[in-house]
Design goal:
Largest sheet: none
Structural class: mainly alpha
Number of strands: 0
Shape: elongated
């Protein structure tokens, strides 16, 4: 798959940290609750967009380059 990065370096770090926090809150803070699993799943997706450097939602909004956060 060929794509152009649309998430900058500082924003990548923020997305990874936020994704990890969401996973922790979902699995530890709301353990066994379906809402907790949903929050954890969204956290995984958020973290992955930070790791990969590409966000499909940003691409749909027309964001072309990875700028500063």
């Amino acid at each position: 798959m060929i794509y152009r990065k649309n998430v900058g370096g500082k924003e990548q770090l923020v997305r990874i940290a936020a994704g990890a926090a969401m996973v922790a809150c979902g699995l530890i803070g709301l353990a066994g609750n379906p809402v907790g699993y949903l929050i954890a799943a969204v956290g995984v997706v958020t973290g992955l967009t930070g790791i990969v450097g590409y966000c499909p939602a940003c691409a749909m909004a027309g964001r072309k380059s990875g700028g500063a956060a």
